[in-house]
Amino acid sequence: MSGLHYYPFFCPKQNLWYIESLEEIGKLPLKRYYDYNYSVFPKRFYKYCANLPDNKKYDYCFIGSFLVDKPTSINRSWILKFINNKFTNNSFLQFTDKKTKKGYIPMGSYDYTLIKKGFVPKEVPLKKRNYFDKEYYKHMKESQFTLCPAGDSFFSMRFQEAIMCKSIPIVQSYDETFRSKSESLLPYKYYLIDDNHVYREDWVEHNYNLFLKYHTFMYSPLLKLPSIKHKIHKPIRKIKNKNKNNNKKVNNIINKNTNFIIKKKLVHKKKNKPKQVPKQPQKKNNKKPRKYIVSKRPHKKIRMVNMARVNKKFRKLKK
Known about the structure:
The protein has helices at about 10-25, 45-50, 70-75, 80-85, 100, 135-140, 160-165, 180-185, 200-215, 245-270, 305-319, and strands at about 60-65, 90-95, 145, 170, 190, 290-295, 305. The protein is α/β, with parallel strands linked by helices. It has a domain at about 5-225: Rossmann fold, CATH 3.40.50. It has a 5-stranded parallel beta sheet. α7 (about 160-165) links the parallel β3 and β4. The longest helix is centred in the last third of the chain and has 29 residues, at about 245-270. The protein is elongated and about 115 Å long. Mean pLDDT is about 80; it is low at about 230-245, about 255-270 and about 300-305.
């Protein structure tokens, strides 16, 4: 296996997840905390999926884009044949991108492409790609097997998302099961297209434990490091007692103190500011500028020589 298919950096979506996961354990998103060997999922993702019921309604499932760009449509071309051969009334299919939905004809009773709306990260700005699509993970948790084809690269995060939802991933080749060299060494259990697909709970538990160990910060060595807490200035709350008169007195004292602090800061800032001196109007010189030449004498200070005086001296010497 060549190293051409390894990706040493995160995509924008994975980068947002990594920053959020660091903040959850009290770490700032600094370079020394970054480890690109394993992609990391935030706590709100795997905790929500863990609380969902394990009722397996569907045998096969695929939710994702198809014609969003050329590399994705090429890498996912094999799923169409698989869907026609394997999907039944107990399956779930949904194409989410806008290009696929234009003039789309449903492939069967299992196809919910035109019925339900889906979330496509590439159709949204970078800041909003951290959105958590609950229906996407819910249907994946209800499925025994999930199709995990590659996207615009040779890898798709759907492989790890399926494991997080306790669904066995199905891929075309071994290349679609990892992003980095470290992830390629993880002994995940999965099926290829032509295998006999049998749902095994021991595989599911094995994959899930590996996911928690390497793709979350639950057992990370970063937890042993001291956490960095941000200094948050909380507003002063008004005290509520039974006696209204006491409340007014206490609140007045609080308001006076806060106003005094604010005024003091403002005065301090004003003192530090330098005084602006008004600009004096410049006098206009109507005289024509004289031509000057700088004398080239390195042992003496540079001085300006008037050419008119020099010419007068030369005239006297000639006479």
